Amino acid sequence: MVNSFIFSQETIASIQERLEILERCLNEANVQDETTAEIFKFAKTQGITVSQLLEKGRQLQYKLNKFNKLSEVLNQKTQLGESAIILCVRANFILKEIFDQYWYLFLNKDGRKTFRILTEDFVEVYKKIKNEFNDDVDEKSDLYILVESLKHKISSLIEASVKINAISEEEINTFDLGDITPQQSEAMLISLASTKKWDWVYRNLT
Prior knowledge:
Number of strands: 0
Structural class: mainly alpha
């Protein structure tokens, strides 16, 4: 389960490289450079300044750092056999926020490659976990909470990937994911996961 939330080193390196390129281009702007020109063009079409775009890049880096720290704690708790479903849910929603709010920072070849890798990896994880899922699964179970939070993340990731042309509509159809419309809100899933966490704590105190 932990592997479904942790980026591969290749993916992390690709994202960090993209952010470094973005910052370098904005601080040392050369309008003849293809990547810089692309960034300026996007900023203009979105009605935002280049400095605002750079600030978005910094915000993205903060979110990624937060996600990676959360993943480390999740890894540790899982290895110790401790309840970690609340961390799983929070990790999924941090990624959803990244996909929803910062997809336009990946509008280049490397960015598209990164999102394609993410889409393929997370779709595979979702399908494996969904294979254990059936209509009789208790809505308060870890599996139900996990699948519902994954639906949020996968939906946002696919939408972002389509926006930057990292993946086509035809390819999405071949994933055969079925209905991935979440049935529970983020607030409800956090609430359910929090209850599960304390249930585990109380059981282990007795």
